[in-house]
Specification:
Oligomer: single chain
Mean pLDDT: 79
Order of helices and strands: HHHHHHHHHHHHH
Strand content: under 5%
Number of strands: 0
Radius of gyration: 21 Å
Distance between the termini: 41 Å
């Protein structure tokens, strides 16, 4: 390869200020969130103390409240701010379990899409250029069954949300596959927390506390795990079919 070819390749795959700018903005947003002490406002204690005022503001503003909530949830996810569970509980409390779930899923999906696009824009070319054979095989396998994998990763709540936002961007998943898999896959877990939020006031008035680990209770976790395993069935079938067709 001659020097001219090297310079072209570096231009395509190297990290530039322009490429990493979106990720720097997202990182700056996360840093600012903690620097200004905004984490104090995303907590169960803050929701307890302000629940009456929040409910009154939502009742007075109608559709504007829907838009503000979705926008805030989008920012929480895009900036990878810890507190998604609290926000979802707040959504269930303020809007009810069904509407709260719908608004949360939309906001979370848009935020996840922002992270996906920023990561792909910054690193996709570089990773493709430097990926070894093992990574290339994993990437090919993920792309062939991307929707099933996305559903599985979104359904199982043990995987950090921000990790699942980033990994598909590095593995070459198509944007619409990522978006649809995210939107569908987060519905069950979101509904659980929205239901928890729907009973928030009653729990607080009785002197109790909401348990954020409720999603790991067997009555909630087992059905979600069952859905996740169903999402993997197409992959298992394809591997079985490929195995039968392999030469002996």
């Amino acid at each position: 390869m001659n020097p001219a070819e090297n310079s072209v390749t570096d231009g395509k795959t190297g990290l530039t200020a322009k490429k990493i700018l979106p990720l720097l903005i997202l990182a700056a947003g996360l840093a600012a969130f903690f620097a200004f002490g905004l984490d104090d406002y995303i907590s169960l204690d803050a929701l307890k103390e302000n629940r009456t005022e929040l409910a009154g503001w939502v009742a007075a503003n109608g559709a504007l409240a829907f838009i503000v909530y979705m926008a805030l949830y989008t920012l929480v996810v895009a900036f990878s701010i810890p507190g998604g569970a609290i926000m979802t509980i707040a959504g269930g409390f303020l809007f009810g379990p069904i509407l709260g779930t719908v608004l949360t899923v939309i906001g979370a999906t848009v935020g996840a899409a922002v992270v996906f696009l920023a990561a792909r824009y910054a690193f996709a070319d570089l990773l493709r250029a430097r990926a070894g054979a093992a990574i290339a095989r994993m990437s090919d396998g993920f792309r062939r069954n991307a929707f099933s994998y996305m559903l599985f990763l979104r359904l199982i709540p043990v995987f950090p949300f921000f990790i699942v936002n980033l990994a598909p961007a590095f593995l070459g998943v198509r944007f619409m596959t990522y978006v649809v898999g995210t939107l569908i896959g987060i519905i069950p877990g979101t509904l659980v927390y929205a239901l928890l939020g729907d009973g928030f006031s009653a729990v607080v008035e009785q002197g109790g506390d909401n348990d954020l680990g409720i999603i790991f209770a067997p009555r909630f976790l087992l059905p979600i795990v069952g859905l996740a395993l169903l999402a993997l069935l197409p992959i298992a079938y394809q591997k079985f079919r490929d195995g039968k067709g392999a030469p002996r």
